[in-house]
Write a structure and sequence with these properties.
Beta-lactamase; six-stranded antiparallel β-sheet; 34% helix
């Protein structure tokens, strides 16, 4: 018995020492990462794990809520065999289809409801680009061709002086960044779980000439967010990106519920590349904003229509513009916001439709880079009347 107790004691001491070493090392973020993934039965970030992050709230305006009209549809509307199969196998949380600004199909799964905020992951990239465009319109930022180093003088690398805001939005930055969502030691995990995302970005150099090649890198949008934060700080009006978002976007679209932005630490910085948390219907209103050329549901101009038109056209990839993905299915062109594990806001202009899907699964199949699941969500959704 004494021998067993001694062995157990040594094991506990070893675990404590190991934990202390990790905590004091550059891999301190692994403690948070492991607790939110492996210890919860996950291999990587989950669309419901936002609740365990430090957050900043973006309050909706209760006196200016836009309720999207809803058609009296059957609960099975739109869920034919192919669509239901896709939604089921991809572990969906919600699926909403708007046609002519009316909800014609709305379904929730796996405990998610119409009032549930979920993490949209890289949908936040498109939101960040919209916010920077709004800041340009408000003369808080000069233009998309501004040099990043003018805002972030600590930027390093052979081509640091060449990097522009446009390069960040179009994924042509040339950063020393490998996009990897499974490696706990990679820069993607470090940025997600670190308590100082700016410190992480200060270690990321610009190693290739910007503007020449498309390379999807989450670090690009995090840099764009840091540029926005720096510009907002100079105004003396906004304390955070979330505050700017609440005033210039969230209240403008008539959000039904508050949204949250995940932070790197308590009272810290927004994770602008990944972590905007909202309800499915409010995500649909962002789709409507783009559908209506930057105008909200009251006809007020929020985002410049000329910018949105340009942003949804290819830049250095036929499938990517200024933070908008570009796809086609069965002869139907569409553009979309896309998040890790298949969060989507799709805008189908020719059909006057918006399709929203949240969840924690994705079917890539042979559909790269436009995945099979988004093709199904769109092609089946636009059939509804």
């Amino acid at each position: 018995m004494m021998k067993k107790n001694k062995t157990l004691f040594i094991a506990l001491i070893s675990l404590v020492l190991l934990g202390t070493i990790v905590y004091l090392s550059p891999y301190k973020y692994l403690v948070k990462g492991m607790s939110l993934t492996y210890l919860k039965g996950e291999k990587s970030a989950n669309y419901l794990d936002w609740k365990y992050f430090d957050l900043r709230k973006m309050q909706n305006n209760p006196s200016k809520i836009f309720v999207i009209p809803s058609k009296n549809y059957s609960k099975s509307n739109g869920l034919d065999t192919q669509l239901l199969s896709m939604l089921t196998k991809t572990n969906s949380g919600s699926y909403i289809v708007l046609k002519n600004d009316t909800i014609v199909s709305e379904h929730y799964f796996n405990g998610v409801t119409d009032s549930s905020q979920t993490n949209s992951f890289s949908i936040a990239k498109t939101i960040t680009t919209l916010l920077v465009q709004k800041a340009i319109q408000d003369k808080i930022i000069g233009s998309w061709d501004d040099k990043v180093i003018d805002y972030l003088p600590w930027l390093t690398g052979e081509f640091a002086k060449d990097l522009t805001l446009r390069n960040l939005s179009t994924m042509t930055a040339g950063l020393d960044w490998e996009e990897n969502y499974l490696s706990p030691f990679g820069v993607s995990a470090k940025a997600y779980y670190s308590n100082d995302v700016e410190a992480v970005m200060k270690q990321v150099a610009v190693i290739k000439k910007p503007g020449e090649n498309f390379n999807y890198q989450s670090g690009s949008t995090q840099l764009l967010g840091l540029v926005l934060k720096k510009a907002l700080d100079k105004t003396g009006k906004y304390k955070s990106i979330s505050e700017f978002t609440q005033e210039s976007l969230w209240n403008k679209i008539g959000a039904e519920y508050p949204a949250f932005w995940s932070l790197d630490a308590e009272n810290g910085k927004e994770l602008t590349y990944c972590c905007f948390d909202a309800t499915a219907r409010d995500f649909a209103k962002l789709g409507q904003l783009v559908m209506h050329h930057g105008k909200n549901n009251w006809g007020e101009s929020i985002i410049d229509s000329a910018f949105l038109d340009m942003a949804q056209k290819p830049f250095k990839s036929v499938n990517y513009g200024h933070s908008f993905w570009i796809g086609e299915t069965k002869g139907i062109p569409f553009t979309y916001f896309q998040g890790l594990h298949g969060q989507y806001i799709a805008i189908v202009k020719n059909e006057n439709a918006v399709v929203v899907r949240t969840g924690h699964g994705i079917d890539k199949s042979h559909g790269l880079p436009v995945f099979d699941c988004i093709k199904t969500y769109v092609s089946e959704g636009v059939k509804l009347k």
